[in-house]
Fold this protein.
Amino acid sequence: MSTDFNFQHPPFDQLEPKQRELVSSNLDIHYFQSQQKIVTAGAQAASLFIIIKGQVEERADNNDEVFAHYTLEDWFDVRSQFGGYAKHDYIALEETLCYALPSQIFRRLVSENSDFGDYFQRDLATRHQLVESREGNKNLAEFILTTIDERNVQPAVVIEGETSLQQATLIMREQKLESLLVNHDGCFGMLTGTDLLHAVVLVQQSLDTPVCQLANFNLISVNKGDFLFNAMLLMTRNSIERVVVKEQQKIIGILEMAHLLSLFSTHSHVLALRIARASSIEELSEAAHTLNKLVENLCNNGIRTLFIMKLLATMNEQIISRVFELSIPQQHHNHICLMVMGSEGRGEQIVKTDQDNGLVIEDGYDWPERQQQLHQFSDYLLELGYPPCPGKIMVNNPEWVQQQSQWSDTIAKWIETGHGDAMMNLAIVLDAHAIAGNKSLLRRLRKDLMAQMANRSVTLAFFAQPALKFHTPLTLFGNIKTKQAGLDIKKGGIFPIVHGVRALALEHSIGPTNTLDRIEQLALLKVLDEDSAANLKEALLLFFKLRIQQLFPAEDEQDYHVLKLDKLNHSQRDLLRHGLHVVKKFKQLLALHFNIRDY
């Protein structure tokens, strides 16, 4: 009997008081020496083991293949509890203590408590949601998941376009407003206190001037029911302080950034305004170097990983666009397109990444000082904390700065080559996202790329092959001998999903670059079934989440692709194992779909 068992970890936290008593009264504690076999393949299940101390390896009975590694508060072997016999050996790697819960007690709990039983049989997406609900994600997460409604929308006060500046000022003062809506011949515009101040003090407009001459009629709107977070992103991207709120195309109010900032303590919009207003690289640097702190604050306050990535992508886009404006003269902007690639192009960064960028130039456009200005652009990004790309995929490398027709020829050569670096270069361009200049130049290039790849099944197979290159690290758990060992989650988990989904997206001419968006499109086209799509999305978000959680706090620089397994709690290790199984299954699907042999 044991009274020290931890009932706070899922799914044991789902047990009723009497069921907890049943567990405590039937638990035994077993001691195993290093290299002692705990469970033998083929043996009938007698107990579910939960580790108190030590490490256990799951291994094939011929000792040739290691399947998994278990440590503090992990359990094994769940499969045999339902199937009757163990498929693999379980061996202590060091002196190990385990709780042993008799199998008949475990099966009784599964049958009596559906929440407890479902945990062991649910797919990754459902299990991840269960753990998320246990962890809470409160505080700032509550703000981010709050929808726009009457509670956070300021009622719109509408005045007629012929109202004078003096009358509008009195209305603002009496009703303590910062903005008014102006109705002029059925069109609505917005008038702010700043507009009035500028008109009277700087331009010295007459107080009798009708407000229709000052109002901004290019309104940006959000819909009632949308997330506050999305409204914040919209204001950030457009460097504005307020948006109108609509319900079924009717304006019902105004949402102001001042109110959002009172709810959202990270003040990300303040950072965005500093970026937009920076008139020198020194001013921009001060804002850019606070970006990691913003991410840390979001992470520490429980904000969901998907929202962190969206916000970081928006902020990085703002910074790089501003560098573009500070280094490339305005007269060139309509003839060139700056594109970012890699995780930036997909909007999947969790930290500031390398400089993965390139340029598309309008055919025939003459730009004599191009190289000097593009070198300045790259140097500025370096000052802001964006390191050079190891593969030199940067605008200061002429190979990644080409006119439209040259890009088309280059892509055609990559496609004809059909393997090696040519395929990875094609993957890089496929993820390109336009952030400055004439963005239509990249849209035409992507359309050309999709057309050139149509019906090229052999080339697509070569393109998809790198997704199968790295072994799924389920077999690497057994090689971890010290607490300092880690797991490269980029190679083992993230890259196979990202590149495999990218290959399927290319095959079906799917436009979005974000991996989660691509998965949704593949599910709509029935290329992926709903369960597979949901599990792939959850696995990818889990891998990103585990990476970002180990970034903060950090005392020194580290490879953030490497997960420190001793830093993960029981639920995280359990989810990680299931996420890696999702990757392994997806790789099998890719090999079959693209007819890739020797996998």
In short: The first strand starts at residue 28 and ends at 32.
